[in-house]
Design a protein that fits this description.
The relative contact order is 0.12. The longest helix has 22 residues. The chain starts with 17 loop residues before the first helix and ends with a helix. Helix 2 crosses helix 10 and helix 15 packs antiparallel against helix 16. By secondary structure, the chain is an alpha/beta fold. It folds into three domains: 213 residues, NADH-ubiquinone oxidoreductase 51kDa subunit (Rossmann fold), CATH 3.40.50.11540; 92 residues, Ubiquitin-like (UB roll) (Roll); 86 residues, NADH-ubiquinone oxidoreductase 51kDa subunit, iron-sulphur binding domain (de novo design (two linked rop proteins), Up-down Bundle). Bound molecules: flavin mononucleotide and iron/sulfur cluster. The site of flavin mononucleotide has 25 residues, from strand 4 and helix 17.
């Protein structure tokens, strides 16, 4: 059984206290980084193979290299701690148990990209975690490890300021471009890309957005070395990752394990299996937006992006949701669809209207009022949302719906009433009232 390597989660008690953090080697990795050039720091992160932990798995060093060089205009770093996807609750572990490693990661990232100001954007509902992070940032200022005084503390001419920002309380605020609008004080509407944030981000200036766990991992890479980090876990998706396991397991938890750890090991060895020894009907591997896997296909599944991609799903935020044999799949799909309908910002038609239609059709299915053609209609609506929207919330809404239909069509069929039959084709107001027009008008 793999054990937790503790690169991101704390290895000692009370690491949230800056004195404990420093007594255990804290802020030493920043000293190492500033002895390198900024390009060498970026190259180290590239060689580690670190990929973003916010869901899209984008290579972190490559993202940093997109930032323009030079200091002719302000540049910004935004740390994404919005963490609002159902099934995802791992970033708050960092705020609570290892906030200084996040701050040290910000310092290294800031130095590498020549950034003098960083924002930590924290989910609006995370009141307690906002206070914890504010306390840690204040401690760092008081100790002179951030702000102007860091030049004296560590030497060199580099300094960074950090601002903790409480989010606006909506899932869409976590999408990187709407996060920027929210930080600027506007409504959190996603922006069109391009231009990408590295060219035109916060207040029109070059900006990098990274997830909390991504940045908190950076000091660990400098502590053990890029090659050592790259040797942990799956070759195409290296290192350790924070798995958050919820649902029908005996010990729901957040655990740090190498990428590529077998899914069954996580569920049965680390989480104590399923209550009552029941069978698993389905799992979602990475937060509610990812396509599910059936319980009978999880043997041998490795939890890294490349392995999951081959199975038609993704690691996402590594929030594993386990559903036992008694789970009502139609109700689960309806609940997920309701969430995305509620969270759609409404800017684009396929998402705004489509998410509502999906919820309505699923409601009909759940109440035994749908026919099997409604399942096809539902699949069709989801397919028309996917890939046709400004931001990826549209895909996030469509993928679980399509995935559950593909994997559990029998359960959807079992909830349908017999197909309606049409005795004649009526001409209503000069229009043929066919089955297809009836379906489309009853969405
Ligand atoms: C609707 C939506 C919500 C998102 N929420 C988050 C979030 O809460 N935290 C996060 O890090 N990324 C979130 N993302 C992904 C971000 O847009 C972005 O890819 C990520 O912050 C980049 O960081 P990384 O490269 O370190 O993964 C979300 C994306 C979408 C489409
Ligand atoms: S996909 Fe949905 S959430 Fe994203 S911009 Fe369009 S309407 Fe808004």
């Amino acid at each position: 059984m793999y054990t937790a390597p503790h690169l991101v989660l704390p290895k000692v008690d009370n690491l949230r206290d800056i004195n404990v953090y420093m007594a255990n080697g804290g802020y030493e990795q920043y000293k190492k980084a500033i002895r390198m050039t900024s390009d060498e720091v970026i190259d180290t992160v590239k060689r580690s193979g670190l990929r973003g932990r916010g869901g899209a798995c984008f290579p972190t060093g490559l993202k940093w290299s997109f930032m323009p060089k030079g200091n002719d205009k302000p540049k910004y770093l935004a740390i994404n701690g919005d963490e609002s996807e159902p099934g995802s609750f791992k970033d708050r572990q960092i705020f609570e148990y290892n906030p200084h490693q996040l701050i040290e990661g910000i310092m290294i990232a800031g130095y590498a990209m020549g950034i003098a100001k960083a924002f930590i954007y924290i989910r609006g509902e995370y009141h307690a975690w906002v206070s914890m992070m504010e306390k840690a940032v204040q401690e760092a200022y008081d100790k002179g490890v951030i702000g102007e005084r860091m030049k004296t503390t560590f030497g060199g001419d580099y300094a960074i300021d950090i601002v903790v920002h409480k989010g606006a309380g909506a899932y869409i605020c976590g999408e990187e471009t709407s996060l920027m609008n929210s930080l600027e004080g506007d409504r959190a509407y996603p922006r069109f890309k391009p231009p990408f944030p590295a060219n035109k981000g916060l207040w029109g200036m070059p900006t990098t957005i990274n997830n909390v766990e991504t940045i908190a991992t950076v000091p660990a890479i400098f502590a053990i070395g890029a090659e050592a980090y790259a040797s942990i876990g799956a070759p195409g998706h290296t290192g350790t990752i924070l798995f958050g396991i919820s649902g029908h397991v005996n010990k729901p938890q957040v655990i740090e394990l190498p990428t590529g750890t077998p899914l069954t090991e996580i569920i049965y060895d680390h989480c104590g299996g399923v209550p009552g020894g029941k069978r698993i009907k389905a799992i979602i591997p990475g937060g509610s937006s990812m396509p599910p896997l059936r319980g009978d296909e999880i043997d041998g599944v490795l939890m890294d992006e490349e392995s999951l991609k081959k199975l038609g799903t993704h690691i996402g935020t590594a929030g594993i949701m386990v559903m036992d044999e008694d789970t009502d799949i139609v109700k689960v799909t309806l609940r997920i669809a309701r969430f995305y309908h509620h969270e759609s910002c409404g800017q684009c038609t396929p998402c705004r209207e489509g998410c509502g239609w999906m919820e309505k059709v699923l409601h009909r299915l759940d109440h035994g009022e749908a026919t099997s053609s409604d399942i096809d209609l539902l699949y069709n609506v989801a397919s028309n949302i996917e890939g046709n929207t400004i931001c990826a919330l549209g895909d996030a809404a469509a993928w679980p719906v399509k995935g559950f239909i593909e994997k559990f069509r029998d359960e959807f069929e079992a909830r349908c009433k017999p197909e309606r039959s049409f005795i004649s084709l009526n001409v209503v107001h000069g229009r043929r009232n066919t089955a297809s027009t009836l379906v489309s008008t009853t969405v």
